[in-house]
Amino acid sequence: MDENNLKQCLQLLITVVSNTINILEQQTSQSNEKRILNNLQITIANLLDCNLSLLSSQYRNYLSNILNQYNYSIEEQMFTIEFTKEILCPFVHNLQGRLSLLDACQAAWNGDLSLVEDFIRKYPTLRNKCGLFGTTLLYSAARNNHFDLVKYLIETCNCSINVKNEDHSEKSEESKLKASTGSTPLHVACFYGHLQIVKYLIENGADYFILNNINETPIQNGQCNKYVQKFFHDFLLFGYSKKLNKPPNNTILEEIKQNEEIIDCIWEYKALSQDQWLPVSSELSIQLQQSLIIKSDEKFKTEIVLKTSTDIYHVSIAQFLYSSINDNQTENFTWIRCRGSSLLNFHAYSQWQIMFIKYPMGITNNSMSIEIFDMTTNKIQLNSWYNSNKKINFLFERAMNYRQKYITINLDFINNEKIIFDLENFTFTNQQNTIKGCLRWIPKIILNNSKLTLVDNFRLPTDLDLTLFTVFYLNQAQLNETISTDEMNQYDLKYESVFDTKILNSQDQQSTCEKKLKIIVNVIQGDIINEQSDVIVICCLSKNLVESVLVAGGNSLRKLFKMKIKEISETSVVSVTTDGKLASKAIYFVLWKPSSDPNILCQSIRKLVSNVIEKAISENYKSIAFPAVGCGEYGCSIQLIAETFIEEIYEQLIEYSMKILFVIQPDRINIYNEFQKQLHLFQQQQTSTTKSISIMIEEGKIEIEQGDIIKQNVDVIVGSSSSENLRQALIKAAGYQVEHAYNQAYEDNSSSLIISTPSGQLPSKRIFFIKWKPNKDPEILQQSIIDLIWNVMQNVISCNYTSIAFPAIGCGKHVCSVDIIVKTMIREMKKQMQTRKLSCLVKFIIEPNQQNVYDEFCKQLFSSGKNFHASVEFQLPAIWQISKENKIRLIVSKDTDEYKSIFKRFDEAMKKEYKKIIKIERIQNERWFMQYMAHWTDFKKRFNKDTEKYLYHGCQEEAANLIIVDCFNRSFAGVHGTIYGAGVYFSSNAPFSHQYTKPNLLEERCMFLTRVLIGKTTIGNSSMKTRPLGFDSTTDGNHIFVTYHDAQAYAEYLITYKSK
Are residues 785 and 749 in the same domain? Predict the structure, then answer.
């Protein structure tokens, strides 16, 4: 009865507000508008007065919570703030959503996915709200073990994983003791022993130390179930020198607030050239321990002397390095480390370092050098320390704070290799055990002032007062207001997926699907104030919106806003944290001015987007909600604003993973439709510019394409067991049907060479999961690829399929020869199509960030083979001569116009700084030319203009001979410097290129006249190992151009000459 009364009351409210909206749309008088709004508030108050008495306290409180957002006081039975016209549409939309939420929560409890999907599609901003009984949709699904619904709510709906239940009953001592109040989905999953959901929730950021109303953690809730209990026993760190008998109840940062001295660590040492760590004597351990415990009246010492009964050690506490004098009076250096938490033992933050003991092609460090490296190069030196970057350091610190035993991190500086770090033993390895190493932390050191200025432990200033960066100094800085709230966030070490890194990393866990770097952009209708993105953007031009967000955020937000708004300028973003008062974590207040000039308007929108995204990235936020800035009553083109917003967002986020929402008011249908239209047009344009090239083999076709294999509309797409990431990505995109079919087939026959499943939600007809393993042995590797191609094509023929798409198998993180793999795949596929007379389409799909792999596939596609022709529309130059000996360099006759043209160009460029031209040779390397023309076609398509330039390249005669046969190979990059990037250098200034030539025994020099595709270029520098994202080449801004693809330039002529 109560529920029916509540629903009836909500429906009445919806009706009266909707009627008022209709009346207002017909009004032109402002005075009438105010009167109508006042009447509405009176009508609602009267309606509530009649209906609230019919409801029990729990149902009345549920309704009260809804109305409180609109400043309605149950006690006073009135609205404390007058309505505005703008608030009505969001108000009625919210009421409709709260009415639907009653049934949606029951659907989540029952596991009814379709009803929940329908609710969230209509009311996405209410996905984290608690229903009538105080539970969220996610909690209800987790409570009853509806795993698929839990996955949908987290992965598709982005539901908050740590949101707590509420209590709508009357507040009493009994209600305070309800375990469900304040509980999270992880609490209930642990209590009921739903292990699969427990692991999944933690993997996606659920906090296992969060407390409910009776101060229970999910860990404690799970102790009644032996499987959950065992999981936490394997997952958590129970200590180092001291082992806990029961699971920990809080994070390290919470534990050290009790100010008790805790010693739980093991000190170890390792000689510079050795691999093994050994325990430090107890006598030295005590002295080392004391050196990091700084009393208030003591000064921190970065260098100390330790004495034992037999030896004297000079120790650098900053570098964790000590030296001693041996019998030969030679100084020996030894690394030390403290295996344990720096925060727990010393209340100090730390800088983490990793050392490679084993790495394919790693450089052995035979010297006694103590040089420290950054994570910026893939030329790994063994037995040397690498400082973690800011992101990885945070992940280590957070894992230690949350007492994790293992953490898996993708290290981008070694080809994004997935590394498993053991935080109990301070070691690491990859899944193939081809990479091994150790890790340690060194204490972070700061200047002893109020500004928390970090110093380099290996380049300490000698004339300044230094101290450890401890929690005490951080708190002092916060009290003194010398550190912002935003800066504080990075030291809170909160258990959230800040860097989109999976959290659950048990030792025996299979690697999870690597998230592709991608941009998720969506347009929704709703109220931006209720949006749960990390950041919501508020334009200060909209006074109503600013006031609404300040009202919702309360007095503390208003006070902080008033203080910070003084800093704002047209080029700045004022970031204000919400402290849990709103669904978002932060609000970005920005200035923006409308303009009737389209160019100025676009420029201002682009600048706004750029400023906001740069700020969000610097503060480690991962999602942003924008309003439709400028689409109000300013006379600006909505189409132009929407188009500019979407273009600039995609331009800015090429390098970063970010979720972007445009939140449009429900009553602005025209704006919503325009943003949807522009988003669709842009995405359509992106997918239509796929980079591909193909050849015909007999009646069949082989195509090389840069793209996403998941999106291929072919009969069969291929996945490989060597790439767990790809397998997981395929299954996730295909849906539950494919996951079930794969698991069933694997259980039936785990040794099967091919597991064939339906395609589920993918556009293909079938998925082939191929069993294949990489191998370092070239012969075994080659044979495995031959067998793979044969088996796949045999199954394609048997099933009468006519199209198939392969990924670049083995060309990712495996330590295999890409050259062997690609050459073998292309050669065997050509052979299969020729011998079997196949009339099918075979596609090799290369990820867009694997440009080198794409180039290699293109190179092999156009290598030896007679019975095919390229589908790229170009012909060999008419001026080329037929050579019976298949010569690729032919001397150009001096009597021809061709010779005279090249001679004149060179003569004018060299400005008489040479004696004479000996000969001019035309290069007729057909394979290279075809590759170059494929690039030329792509560049022309992308830029709608020809970006080709004729440039010079000087070199030695030996290098010229190699170039003519095998292109401008980038393996020689850097021979003459890398000041504008580590690529191949060309110049429009022939005398400049002349400097890099060398005379042969006949005093002859050589210089290429080269066709070079410049594309989009930018100023280069020595740190650029490849082209910057979004650009095709680098330059000095004058005459030098640097390319990074072997076939981006074609050496058309070689000029041999003598200099003066």
Answer: yes
